[in-house]
Amino acid sequence: NTQIAQLLGELDGLQTITDVEQKRDLESKVCEALKREVVSTWVSDEIRRNKPTPENEAFGGLAVIEQSLWHAIPKYLSALNDCCISYLGRSLPIDWSNIKFGSWMGGDRDGNPNVNHKTTMRVSLYSRWIAAELYFKEVDTLLFELSVLPSNDDIKEEAKKIQ
Fold first, then answer.
1. Tens digits of residue pLDDT in 120-150
2. Terminus-to-terminus CA distance in the chain, angstroms?
3. Which of 12, 58, 67, 78 has most Cβ atoms within 10 angstroms of its Cβ?
């Protein structure tokens, strides 16, 4: 894959940067791009030996969501919010999003004889499992981050009310 080779070359070229923060930031961006490229290569098979099942197609689509979009969309929205603050002087509303997803995975019944109610149920349950796992990881990360923050008087007062 030429894109992977190019990204590895960029990563190698970062060794000449002396500013530690700039180097770390660029390394992080290149590594994320590299990770997305590798994952997209893993989930695609340019030479399919067998026709994929509807479940296989759904699992591949969910892998793209899990490995790429789950991380890329928050970064995009954060960058967009930063631009709004810089140029408009205000943040985006907390519940705002200009990205919406819909999926036919496991439910494409308009002529595909391999998709039935059992297929839809399996894909739906797997999708829910992936979503729950992704949210669990985020909450777990958030709990860790919050547990290492220093306490202040307001937090201590709220904790006393709960006890």
1. 999 999 999 999 999 999 999 888 887 776 7
2. 57
3. 58
